[in-house]
Amino acid sequence: MDDGQGDTSILLAALHHLTAELGALGGMAHLSLAGNRRPGMRLVASSGLPGVFTRAWATISYSGSATPSRVMREDCGVIWSPTVDMPEQLLGKPPASVGPCVLPAGSGIAAVALPGPEGPLGTLSLITPPSGEPSPRDQGFMKDVARWAGGRLRLAAPRPEGLSRALVTDAGPPEPGLTGAEVAGGTWEWDLDSGNFTVDPAFTTLLGIHWPGIDLVEQWGDLIHPDDQPYVVHGAEKAILGHEPYDAEYRIASANGSYVWIRSQGHVELDTKGQPVRLTGTMQDTTEAHAALEPVGRALRHMTDGFLSVGSDWRVEFVNIAAAHLLGSTSRLSGRLLWDLPAIHGVPRLEEQCRQAVLTGSPTGFDAPWTDSDRWYHLRLVPVPGGLTIYCTDITERRLREAERADAARAAADRAGLVGTLTRSLAEALTVRDVVTAVADGLLPHFGADGLLIAMVDNDRMRLVGSKGYSQAFLDAFQGLPFAGVNPAADALLQRSVSFIESADDYRVRYPESAGFPALEGKMAWAFLPLTASGRVGVCVVSYAHPRTFIQEERALLDELSGLIAQALERASLYDAATRRSRELQHALLPRELSSTVAVTAAARYLPAGHGAEVGGDWYDVIPLSAERVALVVGDVMGHGMAEAATMGRLRTAVRTLSDLELPPDEILGRLNDIVADLGDDSFATCLYGVFDPVRRDYTYASAGHPSPAIVAPDGTVTFPLIAANPPLGVAAPPFETMSADVPDGSLVVLYTDGLVETPTRDLDAGMMRLEQTLNTALRDGHGGEPNAVCDSVMSALTDTTQGPHGDDAVLLVARTRHLAPEAVADWSLLKDPQAAGQARAHVREQLGTWGLDDLTMATELIVSELVGNVVRYAKGPIGLRLLRGGSLICEVSDGSLTTPHIRHSSPTDEGGRGLQLVAAMAHRWGTRYTLNGKCIWTEQPLPT
Fold first, then answer.
1. Dist. CA 42–CA 72, nearest whole Å
2. What is the pLDDT of residues 134-143, one digit of tens each?
3. Any residues with CB less than 8 A from the CB of 406 and at least 6 apart, and which?
4. Would you call 519 exposed, middle or buried from its count of C-beta atoms within 10 A (0-12, 13-18, 19+)?
5. CB–CB of 256/172 below 8 Å?
6. Confidence of residue 210 (pLDDT cuts 50, 70, 90)
7. pLDDT for res 172
8. Which of 76, 499, 697, 805 could form a disulfide with 528 if both were Cys (CB 3.0 to 4.6 A apart)?
9. Sign for the pseudo-dihedral over CA of 332, 334, 336, 338
10. Tens of pLDDT along 804-816?
């Protein structure tokens, strides 16, 4: 049924269903009519029965024996009677008589109660054919229909706020003598005991109602419009039983057959026992008000926005066409509880908002998606007296437009964000590799690209500087391609604008000479960005694996970004060039290769800090000394920069010079301290200088603020010898303390700078522990103590370059030591006597014979004879003679004098002064070093091959 159908239509529909299903002759619907001594039931609808029959059933006694009365009293489901006995009337009147042949012989009557929330509202009655009593199935059907009808009855007057149905007819012309300014109204009174009903005659005359002869309420009820009788009767019943005010608006028949609207308001009067005895009130003509509200109601019903109103009990009172479409139900909506409607369940927060609006009395609104739909609605909730109105405005299109504007704003923000992010990333990029990474990370995801090439033009050829998303085979083919000619890169640079190719077919059409080039990597779309800055030119290629149409915003954005990339690439290229020159300078200041002797085999690693062009001051050196001794030195100038690199070069040169003078470690550090102090108060350096002696089998060292060396025994045991707590060079106060550590044969002496063991995330102690573990593992892993392998293991373990640039320069020097065998050393003590030279020659002759070095006997005897003779003649004893067989034949003569011999230029007539000249001629190298008790003059001669 349509939602606009009234209670009478609902009752008629129920009667039609029952009559058709049970094959009944017709049916009647009665509603309860309250009273004291004369409660009754009022006929409000009938179907299929003649008027002569139904008039007898118009108003029947509640206490009579008629089947409908029994059902009301007993409320026991369906009651059937095989005969149709006429009902008792009110006031004890006998049953009305019906003329002959009105109903077929053997007709019966079946009645069922209309259920209500507080008991039966009335009954539905059927005149059954002579076939007999309704079956249990038929009786069940009657109960179902009665429940359906009872649940849908509103039994309430239409609201006067423009929500009623359109009016039926006009009230007719006004009576002569009345003006529009007069108020149409009157009083009425209903005696509940007698049933008498009186109305102000002037009012009935004004309305054109034919009143003479009407003295009972039933007669007044006959004038009420059939559609309005159900709620008028129920309203009176409710007022009387509940002692409540009575207020009803309904249509009444006038004398000319038309209907006029009246509003009847009254109250119940009680007797001394509290029982209702009278209902009195006033009536007012509301026909003109309804006529005025008719277009408003029509407008509300047909407006494009959804509109519905609910009462204080949250039941739907009015639904327009648009709202009925939204609620998605073809069944009757009016009278149903709002929260029972399925479409309402899916609207988020609707019930909460409705209750809040009614509680506060303030209008409110919110946007919400509609149930099972992609539409959005703005719900405006307006509290009204006795209920709430809900306006539903479709805002889907508005939201789409807002979403489009938001998308556009978001796209603009994304573009601005991309430019800002890429600008910051490029500003932070130091090297060309950093620029490539920043462009790949910022550009490719935003544009959905999967390939990047950045190349510079050098000597009319393409030089690749970075890429992402390309195979090595393609990069090899791309490297060195000619720039000149017809190609997209050249076009982009010549036109100084981004060149876009949206498909492989587009590429082949525009550049047939290189049509096969895209197939090398399978790319299908490209954007060629020209890179021009400070006279340098290049190209950035952004590529896609699928064909792509570039929208105008993308074209403009890529064109804008090409300038940023070009400038960043130019800065990075200059930075890389400066860094490269700095690295070359730094490496030039370090040893190109380390000296290797019979006593020491060394290897070193240098890892510069990640400061680009700022070179560091870390350095190392291996310096061969006399008697197969080797100086192992490492240092660290504080800071980074050209000044620090220059200081490092000075110190390294000074160390080599001082080492040639055969000074001990503490004196060398003292001289270096003076050099650093002269550079200024802000110059500092640490240094560890030590000498390995393969004969004494120890490492003698001194430190100026530098970490301790590590001695690694052949079995992998690592020790860090004690070191004196001397300040760094530049602030130290000599003398420096000299320390000595035993070095077993085959051991490793490991020197390093603090940058190797100490990092921002690792303190010095933890770093040295890590170094100890790594050295131990390196010797146990089968490297055999090979210095290069040990260096690689240590650098890999202690410097993780994958986590970014190293914080400080790091130097590692690993020296594998070897002792001279006891049989390779021979020494003697000689008396200061003229015969000492002869004894020395005899010792040399015998020892060289034992070593199989007879070829060196004559020269060595001559050298020894001259050196011992000089001691006897010019120095003081005791005299010591030592021969060492190492990488060369070493001859040493020591004495107790501190006088350093010098080669003199003698004249032809001089008898002496040619001894040292003779020694220098016979030896490969010679020199003097000081000892604790004097000095030692040494010579070296190459061993015969």
1. 12
2. 999 999 999 9
3. none
4. exposed
5. yes
6. low
7. 36
8. 499
9. positive
10. 556 678 999 999 9
536-544/600-607 β-pairing: unpaired
Is pLDDT above 90 for 698? yes
Q: Are 208 and 260 in contact (CB under 8 A)?
A: yes
402-405 contacts, C-beta under 8 A, 24 or more apart: none
What would you measure as the largest C-alpha separation in the chain, in angstroms? 188
- pLDDT given at position 686: 93
Contacting residues for 405 by C-beta, under 8 A, at least 6 apart: none
Query: Over the stretch 842-857, which tens digit does the pLDDT of each residue have?
Result: 999 999 999 999 999 9
Taking alpha carbons only, the member of 619, 629, 770 closest to residue 688 is 619
DSSP result, 185-217: EEEEEEETTT-BEEE-HHHHHHHT---TT--BH
- 3-state secondary structure (DSSP) of residue 266: strand
Cβ-based neighbours of 342, under 8 Å, separated by 6 or more: 328, 329, 371
Q: Cα–Cα distances in Å, from 402 out to 367, 380, 406, 408? A: 13, 20, 6, 10
In 10 A of CB 79, how many CB atoms?
A: 19
Asked if residue 775 lies in contact with residue 714, where contact means CB atoms within 8 angstroms, the answer is no
- How confident is the model at residue 666, as a pLDDT? 93
The pLDDT of residue 160 is above 50: no
Provide the 3-class DSSP secondary structure of residue 683: coil
d(C-alpha 774, C-alpha 782), whole Å: 13
**Tokens standing for 714?**
């052949």
- Tell the residue number behind the tokens 């490969």, with chain if given: 924
pLDDT, mean of residues 292-313: 81
The per-residue DSSP string of 66-111 comes to SHHHHHHHH--SEEEESS-PPPPPGGGPPPPP--TTSS-TT-EEEE
How many whole angstroms separate alpha carbon 24 and alpha carbon 886? 138
User: Which strands form 499-501's sheet, in the order they lie side by side?
Assistant: 461-468, 451-458, 536-544, 525-533, 499-501
Please count the other Cβ atoms lying within 10 Å of the Cβ belonging to residue 166: 13
Residue 4: which residues within 8 A CB-CB, separation 6 or more? 165, 334
- In this structure, the number of other CB atoms found within 10 A of the CB of residue 156 comes to 18
- Write down the residue that tokens 């009230």 correspond to: 171
